[in-house]
Amino acid sequence: MYRPCGVFDETYAKNIAIVRTRQHWILMVIGLLLLLTLPLYCSGRILHFINLLGIAMITAQGLNLLTGFAGQISLGQAAFLGVGAYSSALLTVHVGLPFWVALPSSAIIAGLVGIIFGAPSLRIKGFYLAMATLAAQFIIPWIITNVRTDLTGGSQSMLVPAPKIGGFILKDQQSMFYLIIPITGLCIFLIRNLVRSRIGRAFLAIRDNDLAGEMMGIDLMKYKLLAFFICSFYTGLAGSLWAHWMRAISPDQFNLTESIWYLGMIIVGGMGSMIGVAFGVLFIKIIDILITTYSPYLTSFLPPQLAQDAAAGLTPFTIGMIILLFLILEPRGLAHRWEISKAYFRLWPFKY
Amino acid sequence: MLLFQFLINGILVGGVYGLLGLCIVLIYKSTRVFNFALGEMLALGAFILFTFIDTLHLPLWMGLILTIPVSLVIGFLLERLSLRPLIGQPILAAIMATLALSLVMKGVIFFVWGSPTISFPQKILPGEAMVFGEFFLTKELIWMFFISIAVFVGMTLFFQFTKTGLFMRATAEGHDVAQASGINVEKIFAATWALAALIAAIGGIMLGNRFGLGIGTLPLVAIKAFPVVLFGGLESVGGAIIGGLVVGILESLVGGYLDPKLSEVTPYIVLLLILLIRPEGLFGLKRIERI
User: Fold this and answer.
1) pTM to 2 decimals?
2) Looking at beta carbons, which residues of chain B come within 8 Å of A128?
3) Which residue of A has its CA nearest to B105?
4) Cα B188 versus chain centre, distance
5) How far is Cα A118 from Cα A129, in angstroms, rounded to an integer?
């Protein structure tokens, strides 16, 4: 990690601290206070959006660990989200487990499914691995739609009860906010620590060159499968939250386009950068919400059928264009821009 | 007897899958990019013919002839605008670029042709059924199979006897070596994409004639091409047709004997097994990695 001029570490404890300076502490406390009191002065729609961001953030951080840090590609992210959502729904509705048991169990189930589809990564990489995870993207929704339709409701949507913790029933956006945001924070904190541990270093070595990593004593099988497990675990957690937050899930919520979006988020944000992923999630979700809100106005001059088609085409077109432009013009993503602008303000009024 | 019926159906459909696989193999062989946007390329080709013969009321033969240069230009532009700036970038960039391309093309198709599934104003291929003893065959499928085979033969001849074909084979061997021997590799990339777009248009027209034209139908058929190429090996043109036949037969047998719904995912289950057992496919090149 690059440090600005004049910041020194005098003790070992200071060297490994996540929150480093007094300014950081002040900013963090203010930020946390603002975040946690948000429901007091925000409307339900904004809270809804923030909850959506929180869930997407968990998924994207998991994918970033797999793709950005460990260098393995997953095109099946939405399918693993579906595994988490459906296993949590089945566990609460048909098995009758309480929500606080179903949440971690569905994450573990998703993690195990992730290991199954990640297993080919031991022998293949690149496009072949993309294909293996793409297979997950088709097989898992098919299983949800066609096997045991009496439990999942097939292609119809399945209703999920509101989560109940102790005596509290979390049924509005406000209470879900206090469930989702702490979990998101915890997930980000854990990944932040993980990537600078032995495991994280091993992931980086595998990403840069897995053969070379193996030569240096990294157990490829263990760490590749671990990367898939952690990624799918996070995704399953997000899926479970998604199911109990949306309260109705159907297989078409977990399609290939959704998976491409998650990859798009980490590309826009900057691969292998945690703050970058946060930017990417925010950027793509805001674009999405802008399009869905304003496309009726943009297309209102067209005849109704045409307007509907144009509005439907606007989202994939814009997101695809954004991903392409970022790939071509700024492959290091928003994280790189963030570093540049930070350096600019730090050095101002000097150029360098 | 039922078995033979399923086998023949599988072989006929498999030929078309092989053709789709050929598009992917062609691009992968010379540019090392896996084209995930194949489905939208198929749909685009079919919709262009639709525009010529339905909106502009041209006769069918003229529409077909005009589709050729238009799809060549589209393939060229796709390469020029999106893939060329990414030459030399990591592999994820190439994957994401074609995935993003598929989103962009889907958006364009929504803008221009709308979402409902439509069909050509006239049948492109004769559609009546034929009865041979106990077999039922539709003429359409037989036509589709033989057109696919014709394209295969044409491509093989093209690779063997034309200069561009020779350059493409050289580029497939190694980009640097080809460039060092005086081949303009970037031009070859563009030519490959143009050619693949043409083949995709042929496939799209045939499939659109059978299943209807729509952003919902054609990409769904196209994703069957992915197991096909993995089965045959990403580098092998001959492997594409054999992979196509195998996937077609498997799908037909599973659909006939076990469960029609299961046949949708059979190719993917086979794909996972292939990847675990023989990752380079039947005829693919085994890569030896060095540090």
Assistant:
1) 0.91
2) 230, 234, 275, 279
3) A317
4) 19
5) 8
